[in-house]
Structures are given as C-alpha cells and as structure tokens.
Amino acid sequence: MKLLSLVLASATAAVTLAHGPADAAPTVPALFPAFAPQLPHVHPRVASQGHLVEFDPPGTIQQNSSQCSPYCGSEPYGINAAGQIVGFYVDENIVSHAYIEQKGQFTTFDAPGAGFGQGLDQGTTACAISDDGTIVGQFLDSNSVVHGYIRSPLGFFTQVDAPDAGTGPDQGTYVTNVNAAGTTAGFYFDSNFVSHSFVRSAKGTVVEFDPPGAANSYPCDLCLNTAGAIAGTFQDSSGMNHGYVRQPNGKLLQINVPGAQQGKGGGTNVGGLNLEGVSAGTYYTKAGSLGGYLRYPDGHFDTFTAPDGGPDVFGLTVYDALTGNTADGSGFYRAPNGKIAQFSATGAVQTFPYGLNATSEVYGAYVDSSGLNHSFLWTP
Questions:
Q1: How far is CA 304 from the centre of its chain?
Q2: How far apart are CA 219 and CA 245, in angstroms?
Q3: Exposed, middle or buried: residue 103 (CB in 10 Å: 0-12, 13-18, 19+)?
Q4: How far apart are CA 214 and CA 209, in angstroms?
Q5: Cα dihedral sign, 304-308-313-319
Q6: Both ends of the chain: CA-CA distance in Å?
Q7: CA 319, 132, 324, 8 torsion: positive or negative?
Q8: CB 3.0-4.6 Å disulfide test: which of 90, 124, 130, 179 passes with 134?
Q9: What is the DSSP secondary structure assignment for residue 8, as one 8-state letter?
Q10: In angstroms, what is the C-alpha Rg of the chain?
C-alpha cells in the first residue's frame, strides 16, 4: 500500500525519501470507539535463538495480492514498556486498519476521516505507543491525502497536519514518535514530495526543521526520547546520508561515522536514540557493505558487524541493547555486552525486526514464501 510503503521507508536506513514534516492541526476531540478485543491468529515459533511468537489480527488478508504487495498482511510499528504492540493489518478489501496487541488480545481501530475505498490503498496505521497508552500514526483519507493523528488512552483523536504539508494524493503528515511528556514527532511531504522533520509539543506547537545542508530529512522511529531530543537522517544535495540529533533547545548535531563511504548512497543513518543521548544506526563502509554503530555523548563511536553481514539497525534501549536485520535476511539482537543472537521465524524468507522496548522485547515482521507479511514478537 502507498501509505504503508512511505511509512516503512521512514524506518529503512537505505531509503531515499521524497516526503516531509508535520503540523499540529486543531484538536478534534472525536471519540472513536475501538472494536472489542478479539482473539488473534497466534502461532508460537521456535526461532534459531530465543523465543518468537507470530501473530496476525483477525481479518488480516490471507493471501498476497498485487494491489497491496509487498505490504499485504500485518506489521507492527511500536511497543511500550508494558509490551503493548501497535501496527496495522490489511484486510481482504485492501484497506489498512490499526491494531493494538497485548498478551494475545487485539483491539483494532480506524481514525476518524480515514478512507475505506476498496483497493485504493487507504486506511489507518499506528506507528508508536507511549507507556500511558497514547498512540500516534497516520491515515489516508478518501482523496488519499495523508494526515497524522494522536489517539489518547481513552480513545479521543487529535488530527495533526503540518502547516507546510502537501495536500495532494500521498502527500501530507506522518506522526511516528511519542514520548511520556506527550511530545510527538514525525515528518511530512510537501507539495514537491520533499520530506521534512517536525516536532510537536503536548500543547500543539509544531516546529518544522531540516538540518543545515539537507535536501530532505526524517526522524527515525523510536528516536524521540523522554527529554524531548529527536534523531533521524537527512540527505545532502549529493545524495549522501547523514545522521542528526536535535536537542530540546533546538540545537542540531550532525552524526557521521568516521570512515563511512562518501558520496551518493553512502554515509550514516540513525535508527535509535535513548535517554542518555546514545544514538545507534547503520553506516556504509568504504567497501560498500553495511556496518552498525553506537555513538556516545562524548563523541566516540563503537562500530560492529553482524555474523552474516549487514546490519541494518533499528531501536536502542537505555542499556544500549539494539536490534535489526542482517544481509542474509535474518533478525538479530545485540545485547549490552556486545553479544549478538540471530533469529528467524520458521518458514520466513526474510525477518525484519523494527525495534524493541526497555525489556528487550523485539517486534517486527517476517515475509513468508508467498510474499505475505506477519507480525512477530521475539524475546531473548
């Protein structure tokens, strides 16, 4: 789906974006009642290491379709400390719906104003959930314009539209991060399909920004910490990637791994930021392969590689544990001591961890042999 492909692009280190920031539109206190919790399709799997549980919300499309491929099925995009997972699933009509999963129980919802056109790539996606249950994400309306939203723990919705967001099909605002203070962040696509970063205060004040020299920018998922710092990636005019961290006072720090490949397609991407100010991500080596890194507040880097090549890095805990996927299509978890565990779901062609919470519960999606996506939760 178009909506889902753009959201996934914001979480993919090697992608070149063409869309941008978001503004906080007037609050729309519309209560949207969620459906009653339902039993999911849950299938415990024995991973190569650790324990993996696969799940799909009830109503998920059961076969791949050219109308939604490669995003048919279900995918999780966020998790909180209590283990509540949020994401989306695509139904048989090729419409996406947001879901909340916890301990095998599902609640599904659609944002007010979401389109339901059959086969039109419309619907709702949930991208992140705070510890108090606040959920953020975006929806495509009946004209396929993207709008962000904030869903309170009680089910009230606030629509978010960046002031400079485009209003054409597939343009608009994506809200991808929320912290305990109610601050949110994301990106928007302007009328030229250029992406820009933004941060929104709990009171609704939106600040759009791009690092100096950016041709486009976007914050990574799980990259807004409780202090209000936000991290992400931007590309310069040559197409080279650079990481950034924006402090709560607006100061911007550029992140470049020493020795990273220069020029178009090279450079550094950020995939995680924790409260201590440690950032993590992926960089391109001079040989053209991918490496992982952690950058500490004093400026020094710890670089590493995964056993089977790669990695792409997503997410970072307060204890410096992180996750991602390797070049051979499996997932990995890197413990605070640097030890790496690899895992894959049984029958998976590719396994994509998207992030983890403070207790190192890893969430993500895997692709089966038919090209259908399935959500999973992996624990060490």
A1: 23
A2: 9
A3: exposed
A4: 10
A5: negative
A6: 32
A7: negative
A8: 130
A9: H
A10: 19
And the tokens for 179? 């912290």
3-state helix, strand, coil in the chain (%, to 5): 0, 45, 55
CA distances from 272 to 175, 197, 345 (A): 16, 16, 24
> Which residue in this structure is represented by tokens 């009653």?
36
Provide CB contacts within 8 A for 54, sequence distance 6+. Answer: 42, 43, 44, 45, 345, 366, 374, 375, 376
CA distance 178 to 136: 7
For residue 91, how many C-alpha atoms fall within 13 Å in the half-sphere facing its CB? 19
Token pair of 134, please?
Answer: 């606040």
Question: Whose CA is closest to 317, among 339, 298, 334?
Answer: 334
Q: Which residue has the tokens 């419309």?
A: 122
Q: Alpha carbon 120 to chain centroid distance?
A: 22
| Strand-pair partners of 135 | 129, 151
pTM: predicted TM-score of the whole model, two decimal places: 0.87
H helix runs in the chain, sequence order: 2-10
In this structure, what are the phi and psi dihedrals at residue 5, rounded to the nearest 5 degrees?
Answer: -65, -35
The answer to whether residues 108 and 59 touch, using CB atoms and an 8 Å cutoff, is yes
**Residuewise pLDDT in 10s, the chain (380 residues):** 444 444 444 434 333 222 222 333 322 222 222 222 333 333 333 345 789 999 999 999 999 999 898 899 999 999 999 999 999 999 999 999 999 999 999 999 999 999 999 888 899 999 999 999 999 999 999 999 999 999 999 999 999 999 999 999 999 999 999 999 999 999 999 999 999 999 999 999 999 999 999 999 999 998 999 999 999 999 999 999 999 999 999 999 999 999 999 999 999 999 999 999 999 999 999 888 899 999 999 999 999 988 877 788 898 898 899 999 998 899 999 999 999 999 999 889 999 999 999 999 999 999 999 999 999 999 99
The superfamily (CATH) of domain 2-379 is: YVTN repeat-like/Quinoprotein amine dehydrogenase (2.130.10.10)
Calculate the dihedral angle through the C-alpha atoms of 115, 207, 16, 229, rounding to the nearest 10 degrees.
Answer: -110
Look at residues 202, 188, 199 and name the one whose alpha carbon lies nearest to residue 223: 199
Question: Which amino acid appears at position 80 of this protein?
Answer: N
